[in-house]
Design goal:
With 405 residues, the protein is an alpha+beta fold. 50% of the residues lie in helices and 17% in strands. The protein contains 12 helices and 13 strands. Strands 3, 4, 5, 7, 8, 9 and 10 form a 7-stranded mixed β-sheet that branches. Helix 2 runs antiparallel to helix 8, helix 2 packs across helix 11 and helix 8 runs parallel beside helix 11. It is elongated, with a radius of gyration of 32 Å.
């Protein structure tokens, strides 16, 4: 197939070709960014929490009045929950993976180090002696806190313990290629002396913020939160739903002067954490599919118009010996040339659109590898869209074409 006759035909009627190329360019610019954003949202929704999700639930608790000492009340509530058949562990806590609420601190490795910037950020979890068991996580290096190291933490206190645990992600970030055990860090955020010794490293535990740029950096401090929120409960497999039904009644037997609220299975917390991401992914997927459909219909319409307009030309070529597959190849080649022009322009446009999204809306930068993927999709779409009109053109008989003239 010679390209020159096709280019000559496009020069004689450039407007339609330019419009199709512009539509393809716009489709690619939007489609590449949409595909990338949807893929990133799906990847984010699949993030591992590090929690034994099928067997963990949480609940809010607020004691009313000053009828009990907060520390003693906390211990009595935990003891009552642990006495429920099927409960493996329970811990007080207001912050845990994916809950979108928690304490963030800055971690430094040298005295006086500047602490600004997300590279220093880590989530802070208050850990009593049962927190890891309540989440279903383990220490993979070093040791856990001893009971003597754990102190109550009330509203208004500042965490500044002598020892801490960090999770695997933070250990690899702070001390790449070496053990974190025994290393000194600072978590107070005041550019002071290094005052926390790392005594243990846990397996992966996610931060409370699923959209964080550092979702795998956690520091555990040996504090039992008192009156700050509620409880995290882990049950034996298959017992969670039953325990969720009786835990409120159990706590009211200990003390009726309280408000128990928001009893949620961990799957509900995950679903809530990514609700907006799921909605955005679905919306963008619908936009992308709609855009592809509009582009496909545009190519079909334009190709059908060209077939009708060139009936005499096609008939003449058939009379001169052109085979059906030659006519078919002509329209497919013509569409491919227009599509390639549109893909070249659309690739540059996609980078520009992504630059605007990164600068103004905080999206991630589009990898250049996505452009060939988007271009291939648009090219295949164009070939499929033009196939119907091209087949119809290839079936035009020379005699009928001559009479229509």
């Amino acid at each position: 197939m010679e390209i020159r006759p096709i280019l000559s035909s496009m020069k004689r009627n450039p407007v339609a070709a330019v419009l199709i190329a512009a539509q393809i360019a716009l489709t690619l610019a939007i489609l590449a960014n949409v595909l990338f954003i949807v893929t990133e949202r799906i990847r984010m929704m699949a993030i591992a929490s590090g929690v034994d999700e099928p067997n963990v639930f949480v609940l809010g608790n607020q004691n009313i009045g000053n009828t009990r000492d907060p520390v003693i009340a906390n211990e009595e509530d935990i003891k009552a929950i642990l006495a429920i058949p099927g409960v493996l562990a329970a811990s007080p806590g207001f912050s845990f993976p994916l809950v979108r609420n928690g304490w963030q601190t800055a971690v430094t490795l040298t005295p006086g180090e500047r602490i600004e910037g997300p590279e220093r950020a880590a989530a802070l979890y208050f850990a009593d002696e049962r927190l890891l068991d309540s989440l279903g996580a383990k220490v993979i290096e070093g040791r856990y806190f001893t009971p003597g190291e754990i102190t109550p933490f009330k509203q208004g206190d500042q965490p500044n313990p002598p020892v801490v645990l960090i999770n695997k992600g933070l250990a690899e970030r702070l001390f790449p290629g070496e053990s974190a055990i025994g290393k000194m860090i600072n978590i107070t955020g005041n550019q002071g002396e290094l005052s926390q010794r790392v005594i243990g490293v846990t397996e992966h535990i996610a931060t409370p913020w699923p959209r964080s740029r550092n979702p795998d950096r956690v520091v555990f401090v040996p504090h039992a939160s008192v009156g700050l929120g509620g409880f995290i409960v882990r049950t034996e497999p298959g017992e969670r739903d039953r325990v969720m039904k009786v835990v409120e009644e159990t706590l009211f037997k200990v003390n009726p002067n309280r408000i128990v609220s928001n009893i949620r299975a961990f799957e509900e917390i995950r679903s809530s954490a990514f609700q907006s991401d799921l909605a955005m992914a679905v919306l963008l997927a619908v936009i992308g599919i709609s855009l592809l459909a509009v582009t496909a219909f545009g190519i079909v319409g334009q190709a059908s118009f060209w077939v009708t307009q060139r009936t005499k030309q096609i008939g003449t070529r058939r009379a001169l010996g052109a085979r059906r597959k030659d006519i078919l190849r002509y329209f497919q080649t013509e569409n491919a040339l227009i599509a390639l022009i549109g893909i070249a322009i659309g690739s540059a446009l996609a980078i520009g659109v992504n630059g605007w999204l990164v600068k103004n809306l905080g999206f991630d930068q589009l990898p250049l590898s996505w452009l060939p993927i988007g271009g291939a999709l648009v090219l295949i779409l164009g070939q499929l869209a033009v196939l119907g009109p091209a087949l119809r053109a290839s079936r035009i008989a020379p005699a009928i074409a001559t009479r229509s003239a």
